[in-house]
Amino acid sequence: MTAVEDFRCIVVGAGVEGSATAYQLARRGVKTLLLEQFLLPHSRGSSHGQTRIIRRAYDEMHFSAMMDEAYNEWQSVEEASKTKLLTKTGLLTISADLDKIRRHESVLNSLNMANEVLTAKQVQERYPGLGVSQQETACLDPDAGTLRADTAVRCLQDLFVKYGGIIRDGENVITIVPESGTKVRIETANSVYCAQSAVLCAGPWTSKLLAPLNLVLPLRVLRITPCYWSEKHEGMYSFKHFPCVIELAHSGRNGDMYSLPCKEYPGLMKVCWHHGTAADPDKRDVSSAGAERDVQAISQYIAFRYPGLETEPSIVETCMYTETPDLCFILDRHPQFKNIVIGAGFSGKRL
Fold it and tell me: Taking the model in full, what pTM does it have?
């Protein structure tokens, strides 16, 4: 019979949310186990890749209000790991709907956060490589930038272990059994673990874990196609002088367009459409006509927005998104089993 290992808390899922949660628990002296179904590191979920945007500019006050703490926490991780994670580039949020831009401005102003609203002419003067229509306006978040995604996750995991945490990767969770209001048993293919509480940060696999617990959340799993596009002229879109850009969704296109300046791969700019094809995370590599359509749509967008980029992608990658109907994440306790906490639907809203 397999021996049962006991912990104060078990975190399921070693992406950025799960790893950050485990790190915060361990640094507070909580005996914690971090479970991951794949061997680490891996690119099967949502936390892989080299960069992600970090920003203060949201149209929801509560998200922007969290960002002082988020920046401080990332700084503490940088200091503890002796690793540079954040690069400030600034972020332009662009829209033809002036009310949306004014909303960003209002939120940032109310929180005494730096920002600047720019007309189309001002944007073109400041960033000549950026195509902007005369109907568009932009809000500049000067404190925004990029985080080194893969490196940040690894730093969180290393610090978690430094504080006494235990990582078990390559262990797929088979069942989660709430045995009482103060105990949870988790069985994997290899072992059985017990804890007073569990935190589920399983990304696109969340619904599969929750189904046996009689909980259905409004989560939609999408396969997204981030692409990297070559500069026609070296250095035009370098992170040293070009910002991250978000063009907000509009009536002619669902989903925001995200762009990150050249940094991950020399001379290649990352552009991603927050839109994708519904997918089973266990079948993410199955070919899809939807992915081809998404790449074509990004190419058409680039032809106008970034005239200094080639319109055929140099690299095409896959990332799994998990989102809710209102695009705001879920962070709550299971309604029946209060010692099981669920964090899900973070795609596009990571802090």
Answer: 0.93
